UniProtKB/TrEMBL annotation:
Keywords carried by this UniProt record: Membrane, Transmembrane, Transmembrane helix
GO cellular component: plasma membrane
Membrane topology of the entry: Multi-pass membrane protein
Protein name per UniProt: Transmembrane channel-like protein
Organism: Meleagris gallopavo (Wild turkey)
Amino acid sequence: MSQLPAFTLRVPENTESDGQEPSPDNEGALHSSFCELIEEQSSLVAGAIEMELQERSREPSALLPPLDPMATAGLEPKQGEQHPGYATTLRILANMPSHTIGRSRGAIISQYYNRTARLRRRSSRPSLQQLSHTARPSLRQYDLESDPTNATLADKQSLLAKELLSLPPAQRSQVLLEVPLSLEEKRSLRRQLSQRRSTPGLRVHSSEPTSPCAWCQDCIVLGCRTLWYRFLALIHAAQPWHYALKQISGRFGSSVLSYFLFLKTLLLFNIISFLLLLVFVVALQAAYPPAVASPRPFTGLELLTGAGSFTHSLLYYGYYSNTTLNDPSASSPSGSTSPSRATQLPYNMPLAYMFTIGANFFATCILLMYSMYHSFLKSYRVGSSTGVLAIKIFSAWDFKVVQRHSVKLQSENICTQLKELLAEQRLRSCPLSLPQRLRHITVLLLAWLLALGTVLGCVVAVYYFSELMHMVQQKQGAAAGSVWLQEGVLLALPFVVSLLNTLMPHFYNLLAAWEKQDSPEAEVYVAICRNLLLKMVVLGLLCYQWLSRRLVCSAKECWETCVGQDLYRFVVMDFIFTLLDTGFGELLWRLILEKKLKSKRRPEFDIAQNVLELIYGQTLTWLGVLFAPLLPAVQVVKLLLLFYIKKTSLMQNCQSPSKPWQASHMSTVFITLLFFPSFLGAAIFVSYTIWWEKPSETCGPFRGLQTIYQTPKVWVELLEESNPNIAWFGWIPQYLVENTVFLFFLTGMVLAVIYFNIQVLRGQRQIICLLEEQIANEGEDKKFLIQRIHCIYDDKVHCA
């Protein structure tokens, strides 16, 4: 039976071209190029049209390839009759590059054989133009062994393996990755390559014998590469909670995963802060402890109150000395200078304390800004997510996963992501009508009025209760009552504040159920705003009271230590109420649903409340780092326990979200809220304390100074007195810190960088839109080409 001649459009593979390609904007050049292409294809098809018409009358319909009805709906005639050029169109479509994958393996192998041969010849010998006519190879030497167009599929595979074997290992791996063959065929090629390398008789004849030095060099390189890959795999596996985060993402989606990623980020910040304070302040003060009179015995209540034996310890500000540690001029208690310490360097503890706190806030600010920038690029630069669904379906599977449990975990993860994408598209396709929008806006206004009213009521209640507790503490101090009762009263205010912070989010959840937000994402954002407003206003009130009562507290001890103890109690009490809310809010509610109500539903993980608990606890840590240098260590222990407790409760007590939604921007929102108002508010509070508040007179590293900020000035004056040659050093704090010009310049540079990044993101979005439009235009070009081929076929039929 006759067959149509196969025709292909030969395009050179190299990207360099001598002439200039027609621009996509030049429609005339594109039209002329399409016309030339059509004429070329029609000249090849014209000789086989008659044979095709004869074959169609004899050829059974079962031999025709199956046709996709969606792809050919626009090509079929309206009356249900088959178009005369139907078979020709199928053959043209079958010869398109996108339809050859998986069917024309011989053509693909031949193409990559030619490419591999060119790579080998390009790297092994000079170009043909540089050789003389006598040295050029003859075309008569080409036969079936070297011409892959006339060979069978097995011969082509053998030729390709032989050419791959002659390439360097890097190019060989790259070519194997680029070959559009199945994994089984690539494995077959790799097996052939390994057999040829291992069998001496099957080696390439052109390869030279390997010397012992070259063999040792190859072994050393291969061993180093293997060790490097194992080291990279070890680093990847050593990431904290790598498997646990994958498990959470597979079962509960990206929305719940964003909470644990945020917790991991906070843990990193606190570890960095703790290491800075430990190395430069805490460890050195522990090496040279000050004299402490009559330390109190440990009773166990200090773990809750932070008072008692913890008062005069490394945990609080009042323990640190205001002297130069290891000073050579310092005398021993007997009055003589210690010769063993005279050879060591002195260490100014007040200066180190102040600059370490400043470096801690500066490093945290840099890390926060980098995290915001990285998260913003990751979540917002892609633009619309209209094509993500197809990418997830066809390109999301990782074929390197071979273990049964990992395969199950990855399939769950992909299914959850598909649910989130479909839910997002479903929300976009169901807009509200005008009456529904008006009713929804009215409900939102009433809910926000109730939320703001509850915030105001909570702030007033905290204010009056704190005043009452302050009066009770003064009366107990004057009466000299029981120590347990005095320290127990200290927990009353943290208890009330933590109770409000735990109960009010549940009230806001009732408001959210009444509001019926359009999407779960909007519901989470609204809950975060309300909880954040409540917590930040209460913290602002507490900061004002701590600074206003410093004179009353400093009558008996350091007011900085009193503030540090209050912040420690708030951190501990917040952790206790978080555990209680996890137990009663998730475990108890699950038992009630399963045992009493006989329901299969479980409580859902409240993202807004849990995230705001993390932000609230981190804000307390940043507020207290000046008054309690070891408070970041307490926060590290708290976050570690929270991760395992929350993960266990999530796996055992909670269900996946009933309305799946994609949390692509949640991490960016969490980091932004952590930066403002949490970090900026704590930085303002600490900066105000350093610049304006007077330190305690009897304790702490800054005793005897009017403000903490005077510490570098005093140190510079001492340096100028000891060595007048470094008098120029005094202009650094004067012109870089006190002068506002430098601060304005630094702020302008930061704003310029932010503006530049915003413009880059806008440009990336415009480029993405242009590329999407170009892809759509290429699809229209293919439709236009198929229509022109039909027209040419109709003209040929009429002329015949």
